[in-house]
Design goal:
- The complex is a heterotrimer of chains A (about 300), B (about 180) and C (about 240).
- By secondary structure, chain A is mostly beta strands.
- Chain A has no helices and 28 strands.
- Chain A has a 26-stranded mixed beta sheet that branches. Chain A has a two-stranded antiparallel ribbon with strand order 8-9.
- With about 240 residues, chain C is mainly alpha-helical.
- The radius of gyration of chain C is 22 Å and the shape is extended.
- Classes of the chains: A mainly beta (about 300), B mainly alpha (about 180), C mainly alpha (about 240).
Chain lengths: ~300, ~180, ~240
């Protein structure tokens, strides 16, 4: 990779928002082929798409309360930040909206970071590492990113990717994963988790009160851990799966369509347990629930 | 009820206690008339639940009836009684499944000025989360010290202070700024 | 803008629990600090109003008759939730200490940044100040055998200190900051329910390691959420 001879931050543009009105922007500047693009937007949405150009393009609108859009580059790092004044009240400054709607195109080999509070994030066609963070807003990712890390509080996370390392966290929202490989970690408190498709080596899903549905495949000699407190767990696997199962509940019931029946974990206790091997028991599956019911069935 | 009356001379209470020990129901009624209002107030403020508060009053006076034998008279009867009331209230809080209390609507739908809320103190106390409410009621309303609260609740005095801190800040935020 | 370092003193001051030296030191600070003075005023008003609330409230008039009925029914009229008394004296240090280290090690690692470390020592010396007659845990749990009690006590303390850290050092708690932070409340409540239920379960199966693991996990998540709430309230997320 050619070494870029920038030694100082080059401020491409300081798009100052027009006072009192919405500002439209459309700025394009060169960027490293496999660089990092980091985006900060407090409120609105951020849609990032990968393309084959070695440029970053920012198109969109800035609300009247926004001070300006910073668009700067330092070596292989491009920074896009929606600058807003300090005193935000109810999502506005002096009654003016600080929302920014940004459509950003980045070189497809980029790594992308997005950070915001009340923003919806969408990323597609980007192959580098993704690190996406919002508070109130959903996050949607598609394409073949290398690694995906998402965190939100009130928002659903929807993934349709072939990522080899995925780490997803939400609090009140749900997680839906379609596709993927390698490592997967999904955690939420009140939402549900659904994983369909994908072949994983190491996966863990944990909820407190939401339901979990696992319909994906396990690679050989992989490990899967599903945990909940009071949500239900549904585990659907092909009969050809080779795995050692360890399923325990404190008080939830276990229904097993792939092997023997669960037994009571103790004579007086309310819980159940199930330990059995399917095939040669190559992979390891651990399911643990407090009061949620567990259903294992063939796909 | 107790609120309007002058405090009973110790002699009269002594007589009631004697009557109580000999199984005289009217003595219990006498003590009820004197102290139930206080027990009810404690239960109501600690649990923020009127029907539970009623149960507490019932249970406490039944306990008094059954356990008067264990009251040795070293402290004042009212002190002993109100301790029973606090303990019983705390039991019901722990015994039952904690219902999720929806934060008071005014906070979420804050108008533009944000802080002009007229919730009065009693209502604001009921809206506090349990731990904070219990400590606030015991400390700032009832006047117990952190050590005593720690003994009631099985927590360290430091924890009691932390809860009180939290309660006062939450109340301040909910009550808004009052203009003189 | 409040001064976080004076918050504890202010609280103790309005409760009349500050010793002479500390009080003098605080009064000196208040002389020159408007925001702390205002804070002291507001706190004092709340405390005074609280102390002035009626100590006695009239219960419904039928209540005595319910009691009289119950007296007639005789000894069956038991309180619904019997209070479990466990002796506090015999504290099995070896087992409990091991449990504390196992959990406390985790707790220290996840302590919020900038959080004062006073809870560390408190938890390590559970026997020191208060040996309550009945070992009952704070608002979240039912009574437990003593070693688990200490474990849960440690976790609850850490959790409460984290909550306190959320409010201390914030620029000023207003309804909006509270509303921002309260987005985590449904999750905190779900975790509290999970904690409650797990602790109840531990009473039935105290040797079940999975329950202790789950409990620690819930507290960890709670602390993480409190950190999130702090960032949200202070508006320093983005």
């Amino acid at each position: 990779m050619k070494r870029v001879l920038w030694t100082a931050t080059v401020l491409f543009s300081l798009v100052t928002a027009r006072a009192g009105a919405q500002t439209t922007i459309d700025e394009t500047h060169s960027a490293a082929e496999h660089g990092i693009v980091s985006i900060r937007n407090v409120s609105g949405f951020v849609h990032v798409t990968g393309w084959s150009q070695k440029n970053v393009r920012v198109k969109g609108t800035l609300g009247p309360g926004v001070k300006r859009l910073n668009f700067e580059r330092e070596e292989d790092r491009t920074r896009i930040e929606v600058e807003v004044p300090d005193h935000i009240h109810d999502g506005k400054v002096n009654g003016k909206s600080i929302e920014a709607q940004l459509e950003i195109s980045v070189p497809e080999g980029s790594a992308v970071r997005v950070d915001g509070v009340n923003i919806e994030i969408g990323v597609g066609g980007v192959n580098g590492e993704l690190e996406l963070q919002s508070v109130n807003g959903s996050v949607t990712v598609s394409g073949e990113p290398d690694e995906v890390k998402v965190s939100t509080v009130n928002g659903t996370i929807t993934l349709n990717t072939g990522a080899r390392k995925t780490h997803l966290e939400t609090v009140n929202g749900s997680i839906e994963v379609t596709g993927g490989k390698g490592e997967l970690e999904a955690a939420c408190v009140n939402g549900h988790i659904e994983v369909r498709d994908g072949t994983f080596d190491e996966a863990s899903c944990s909820t407190v009160s939401g339901d979990t549905v696992w319909r994906a495949t396990l690679a050989s000699r992989s490990s899967l851990s599903l945990e909940t407190h009071s949500g239900s767990i549904t585990l659907e696997l092909p009969r050809s799966t080779s795995a050692e199962f360890d399923v325990t509940t404190f008080s939830g019931k276990i229904a097993n369509g792939l092997g023997p029946e669960a037994k009571r974990s103790s004579e007086y206790g309310p819980g159940y347990e199930l330990h059995f091997d399917l095939g040669s028991g190559a992979s390891k599956i651990d399911v643990s629930s407090f009061s949620g019911d567990v259903t294992i069935r063939a796909r | 009820m107790a609120s309007g009356r002058t405090s009973v001379p110790e002699l009269e209470e002594k007589e009631l206690l004697t009557g109580l020990r000999s199984g005289d129901e009217r003595a219990l009624e006498g003590l009820y008339r004197l102290h139930a209002g206080r027990v009810y107030a404690l239960g109501l403020r600690l649990t923020a639940d009127p029907s539970r508060a009623e149960e507490i009053v019932q249970d406490v006076f039944l306990q008094v009836w059954r356990r008067i034998g264990s009251f040795e008279g070293r402290s004042r009867f009212s002190t002993w009684l109100y301790r029973l009331a606090v303990n019983r209230s705390l039991d019901t809080i722990r015994g039952g499944r904690r219902e999720w209390q929806e934060p008071e609507a005014p906070e979420r739908a804050a108008p533009d000025h944000g802080l002009e809320m007229t919730m009065d103190l009693e209502r604001a106390i009921t809206a506090l989360p349990e731990g904070a409410r219990v400590v606030f009621v015991l400390h700032d309303v009832e006047g117990y010290r952190h050590e005593e609260i720690g003994a009631f609740c099985g927590i360290a005095p430091g924890t009691s202070k932390a809860q009180l801190f939290r309660a006062r800040r939450l109340l301040r935020a909910r009550l808004g700024r009052r203009h003189p | 803008m409040n001064h976080p370092e004076w918050q504890d003193a202010l609280d103790a001051y309005v409760s009349g629990e500050l010793d002479t030296t500390a009080r003098e030191s605080l009064l000196l600070h208040l002389k020159g600090c408007t925001s702390c003075r205002e804070e002291a005023d507001t706190l004092a008003r709340i405390v005074n109003d609280a102390g002035a609330l009626p100590r006695s409230l009239e219960p419904p008039s039928h209540l005595w008759w319910r009691i009289a009925e119950a007296l007639r029914e005789g000894p069956q009229a038991e309180p619904r939730v019997p209070r479990v008394r466990t002796p506090s004296s015999r504290f099995r240090f070896a087992l409990a200490a091991a449990a504390l280290v196992a959990v406390f090690g985790v707790a220290v690692l996840i302590a919020p940044r900038g959080h004062d470390a006073t809870t560390g020592t408190t938890a390590n010396a559970p026997g020191s100040e208060n040996q309550p007659d009945v070992v009952v845990i704070s608002d979240n749990a039912k009574p437990q055998p003593s070693d688990w009690a200490r474990l849960i006590w440690t976790l609850e303390e850490e959790s409460l200190s984290a909550e306190k850290a959320v409010f201390t050092g914030l620029a000023g708690i207003d309804a909006e900051a509270l509303a921002r932070a309260s987005v985590v409340e449904p999750a905190l409540d779900a975790l509290d329910i999970a904690i409650n239920e797990t602790v109840d379960a531990m009473r039935l199966e105290p040797q079940n390691p999975g329950l202790a693991r789950a409990l620690t996990g819930y507290y960890e998540r709670k602390l993480e959420l409190l950190r999130v709430a702090a960032r949200l309230a202070s508006g320093t997320w983005a």
